[in-house]
Amino acid sequence: MSNRLTIAVDVMGGDFGPRITLPAIARFLSADPHIHLHLMGDPEVVAPFLSSLGQDQCRCALVACSQQVGMEEKPSSALRNKQDSSLYRMLESVAAAQADVALSAGNTGALMAMAWKVLGMLEGVERPAIATAIPTRYGHSYLLDVGANLEAGAAQLVQFAQLGAALAMALDELSCPRVALLNVGVEHTKGIARIQEAARVLEALSAIEFRGYVEGNTLFSGSVDVIVCDGFSGNVALKTGEGVARLLLGSLKEYLQSRWHTRVLAAALRPALRSWARRFEPGVRNGAMLLGLRGGVIKSHGGADEDAFLAALHYAAQVARHRVPQRLAQSLAKIQAQA
To answer: Which Gene Ontology terms cover its molecular function (predicted)?
Structure first.
């Protein structure tokens, strides 16, 4: 890989495909003059877009693909039959060291299956986990898994904890991240057997500061750096939090517009309120990393709008600039050596 930073983008993926991805890419290119892009997709769609970019066109390369993976397509079918798809070719670009990181809003199951085959897993990791940053009182915590593995045994939960800790070490430069398991109570006797078994193993890991359990009502407290759960629980928790955030922000906006004196107050407070609200707007934090792979892969929300996909592009650029995949692998090896 040269010193040039490159993101491979699945242009066709997501609920809205090029209608969202291409305008977001145009805005990203204007905002970040140093990143190059490999755009995987239908040449009849992407080529006219490239010709409209002006001088930014020189930072983009079209990778023509004859196929695309549907959002409802079975991962096994996509893996067998869609090897010239924008999703598969995007991952091949990372595997061949032609791109530093890959970004897609496409089918999560197909992305995970293809990434597993094309990139392979890091030593000691059975399956990828999707990790995302969630807002807290003091900044953010990492929550994983949020959808790659609907079920996870004790050994996988321990691996997710190690991956999440390695991510916190790589991105936030924490020497000994605080890690907890999501559970229905904080007492040692609470929770199902696999969670209790994972807790016993994590307590013995010196490279991780294991804090026991956190409940749903303290998920956003910032008391720990990494919160670990299976993909079913994590996805429900994440989307519940996003729904509550939208409810509160929408309710506050309606209230401030409901009376003349609150409209005056809102006008005076608008800059501060806008800055505050952005901390909790789900689209601002769009972009979750698939951990455990031999390469960087970012998953955007499938239903992301233009602003949200732009946020995912900026996150992918951050991951590339900080060499997060490489640093994560190094941090994980350090954690595993102390296990």
So the answer is: phosphate:acyl-[acyl carrier protein] acyltransferase activity
Residue closest to 145 by CA, chosen among 292, 321, 42: 292
60, β-bridge pairs: 37
pLDDT for position 124: 83
Ordered DSSP codes for 15-81:
SSTHHHHHHHHHHHHHH-TT-EEEEEE-HHHHHHHHHTSGGGGGGEEEEE-SB---TTS-HHHHHHH
Under 8 Å between Cβ of 283 and 311: yes
Residues 6+ apart with CB under 8 A from 47: 62
Tokens of 108: 């999560």
Bridge partners, residue 40, by sequence: 10, 63
Cα 248 to the chain's mean position, in Å? 24
* Mean pLDDT by groups of 10 residues along the chain of 339 residues: 83 94 94 93 93 88 94 92 95 95 94 93 88 86 89 92 90 89 88 91 86 90 93 88 76 75 70 61 75 93 91 92 87 78
Name the maximum alpha-carbon separation found in the chain.
Answer: 63
Tokens of 133: 């940053």
| pTM for the model | 0.84
182 sits in which H/E element: strand 178-182
> Which helix (H) or strand (E) is 326 found in, with range?
helix 324-337
